[in-house]
Amino acid sequence: DIIFLSLNNINPDGKATDAQIEQRLNAVLDHEMIHAFREKDLITEKEYDYLKKQVKKVRVPKAFDAESFAKKETFYTRAERINKRTFEERANRGIIDSTISKNELYAEEAIAEMYRARGFRSPLPPRAEGIYNKIYHQIKNHYLVEHLEMNHLVM
Fold it and tell me: What whole-number distance in Å separates Cα of residue 12 and Cα of residue 82?
């Protein structure tokens, strides 16, 4: 599968430092990886239920989104506020499967945003960090095994 990144969104004015570009890329990747993990069923239902509960409890940090921080929003209430119109427009145009509840869409977006906020002085709950690391290492190990097998076949 492929995750597309728009470098224009990462560094729109061309003035970001290498460190800022790296932080922004990592944030977007952390967010998009959650959608990919969910699509591929790499997050168990038990883990996903835990993450859904977390995004309804964990507040958005100021460094990540000052407006949401001032409103004392959780990641879930922020996702609902930010995405409500977009989800409704997509549903009206038939882009979103109507059998999926808005709450599920908001929950997945909130979880993705919670992981995106990792680089903004927002420590994840240890179990949430563990879920991400488990999946990351599974994918990494799978890639390494495939890579080694390919190299062995070429030799």
Answer: 21
